Amino acid sequence: MKATPALDVSGLKTHFFTKAGVIKAVDGVSFSVASGEIMGLVGESGSGKTVTGFSILGLVDPPGRVVDGSIKIEGRELTGLDRRDLQKIRGRHVSMIFQDPMMTLNPVLRIDTQMTEAIHAHETVSHKAATARALEALEKVGIPAPEERLRSHPHQLSGGMRQRVAIAIALLNRPAIIIADEPTTALDVTIQGQILAEIRTLAAEFGTAIVWVTHDLSVVAGLADTISVMYAGRIVEQGSVDDVLDRPMHPYTRGLLDSVPQIGHERGRLKQFPGMTPSLLNLPEGCPVQPRCARATALCRAAPELMERAAGHFARCHHPLAEPSREVAQ
Amino acid sequence: MTFDAPQNSPSRASAADDRPILKLQGVSKRFTKPIDLAAKLLNLAGANYRERIVHAVDGIDLEIQRGEVVGLIGESGCGKSTLGRVIAGIYPPSDGTLRFKGQEFKTLTPEHAGDAAIRIQMIFQDPMSSLNPRKRVVDIVGEAPVFHGMVPQAEMDKYVDEVLVRVGLTGDVKRRFPHQFSGGQRQRIGIARALALKPELLICDEAVAALDVSIQAQILNLFMDLREDLDLTYLFISHDLGVVHHIADRIVIMYLGRVVESAPNRELFAAPNHPYTQALLADVPRIDRRRQTYRPIKGELPSPLNPPKGCHFHPRCPHAFDRCRAEAPVLKHVAPGRMSACHLNDG
């Protein structure tokens, strides 16, 4: 393992102070991602996965606030930095790809303007050099006829093309880390395949560390090296992609996996995980999964800690699943 | 009349007949953007503005047998939702005939056509935008059956209770408004509204796409239970191959307004025939595929305003040859129960 991971988050807590009460959207999240590694941050809606990504970039707006924890990028602490220092880091050392590329793109500016602006914000280079770099970035993400695309406006591009441009902008300053928030969810299967292929190449080629925030287990299965599963603001399971998907320890992870209709599996009723995600304002006492969990006992009324149950495989559960119980495809 | 009573309405009496419950022949749907006044004036001055026509659905032949679950797969813009809406009677078809249990819609008297129409119900992707936010659940679910005379007004409450129980809710939620429910519960209300009319054919348009995985599994299970208990036929429209593989008996693949392949579920996944189907199956992310090397097909869905000549897929197809650029392939049998529209099958 490398001495300094590209991204090291520990004990991160982001709370929202609302009239109805304090919402602990992220409540003690820790993980680290090495250069060239892709981590899947998986969870259902309301699990806090997106807020975790936003917190890393300092994008949480009031009433939300990072209240505790540390975020280190290549060893440098990010929490507590003021706006100007943060702006120097954003887009340069860490950048973000959103689900909707129009969050990144300005609808009234041409692509080349937007891309060269992102370079000039961090470096003093000639306009010509900046344009050349923009062109190169568009080529990297597989955009056909990039010279032409540079002169287009966002509305002239298809959804898949816009997402590629957004990815190209994220790459412009060769950031050490990219946070990608469900960037392929809105795309079609064939376009998604194209983008995932590019992402894998980029991580390998530039050594970019990628945090891939998603609800889709099948996407992270093909893409990620490690997985962190979130539930109600906390990581409930963490490990290598094979450990988590083939030998899940947390009953919630198991439940998620059973819920996904899989190609090649026997059809018939899906094993469903009962109930739904609890409201963060009204979390059950102890383990938050407990009311939905078939393995819950009196012990679960005390909140479990995230513990290493096998080498590199962590679970936050009093009654982890020990045996590899994943059914073999028939 | 109660919801779970034996179904012996006249339309159910013919349950034994082996005619397809739905038969489409050459159904097309075109959307036209008429030229505006300025363009008309400019045309008088010699300009050449024309109407823009989108062939959303282009000559579809489709049969659905009673009790069958047909999965309709395609990428955005391929016309799958438009086709669903044509079948549900929301859009009139521009061309072609639509037969429900052997009867053509156009030839029915308005009264009978209305009766047939309520036998086909639709469930939408986003229950928030398809449920009236100002109505209580009891009215959302109960209004239509009362209006159509299936249930007397006085028994509406009792009837709604029964329908709600059927979809896994309890009767005590019926005084609430849609915003007071979670996404999964709202989808159950959408299903209850459709079921209240005792449909024979349910069209589910991306009905589980907006739901979280664990909730999606609960709703998929509900669909499967309902099918068994109520003798339902589904047209399940989705872009999610995993979901369709799980629920469908037969799968129909659409590309740019046309059906390119139709095959029984298992056979389609074992040996896809059409190059587009092959590309779709190769690209689909699966939990059992780790560190996947994607070999994506090139390019994007062309604009339906200006579809390519010949086979719509030829600009992206790795096997395209001269004939594909000139002549549209016909959907024909390639094996018993399997159809495909590709020139490669002609040897």
What is the gist of this entry?
Chain A has 330 residues and is α/β, with parallel strands linked by helices.
Textual characterization of the structure:
The complex is a heterodimer of chains A (330) and B (347). By secondary structure, chain A is an alpha/beta fold. Chain A contains 10 helices and 12 strands. Chain B is of the alpha/beta class and 347 residues long. Chain B has helices at 10-13, 37-44, 80-87, 110-117, 127-130, 137-147, 156-166, 183-195, 213-230, 241-247, 265-270, 275-283, 322-326, and strands at 22-33, 52-64, 69-73, 95-100, 103-104, 120-123, 201-205, 233-238, 250-255, 258-264, 332-335, 338-340. In chain B, the strands form 2 sheets. An 8-stranded mixed sheet of chain B has the order 6-7-8-3-9-10-12-11, sandwiched between helices. In chain B, strands 2-1-4-5 form a 4-stranded antiparallel sheet, with helices on one face. The radius of gyration of chain B is 22 Å and the shape is globular.
List its traits:
heterodimer; A: 330 residues; alpha/beta; 8-stranded mixed β-sheet; 4-stranded antiparallel β-sheet; 10 helices; 29% helix; disordered C terminus; B: 347 residues; 32% helix
Task: Report strand % of chain A.
Answer: 15-25%
- Strand neighbour order, sheet with most strands of chain B: 6-7-8-3-9-10-12-11
- Taking the alpha carbons of the first and last residues of chain B, their distance comes to 58 Å
How much of the sequence lies in strands of chain B comes to 15-25%
Cα radius of gyration of chain B in angstroms: 22 Å
Structural class of chain A, by secondary structure, is alpha/beta
Supply the number of helical segments of chain A.
Answer: 10
- Number of helical elements of chain B: 13
Elements of chain B, N to C (H/E): HEHEEHEEHEHHHHEHEHEEHHHEE
Q: Low-confidence parts of chain B lasting 5 or more residues at pLDDT below 50?
A: 5-15
What is the gyration radius of chain A calculated from CA atoms? Answer: 21 Å
**Sheet of most strands of chain B:** 8 strands, mixed
What profile does the largest beta sheet of chain A have? 8 strands, mixed
Shape of chain A: globular
Average pLDDT figure of chain B: 86
Provide the residue-averaged pLDDT of chain A: 87
- Residues in helices of chain B, as a percent range: 25-40%
CA distance, first residue to last residue of chain A: 37 Å
Largest interface: A-B, 48 and 44 residues
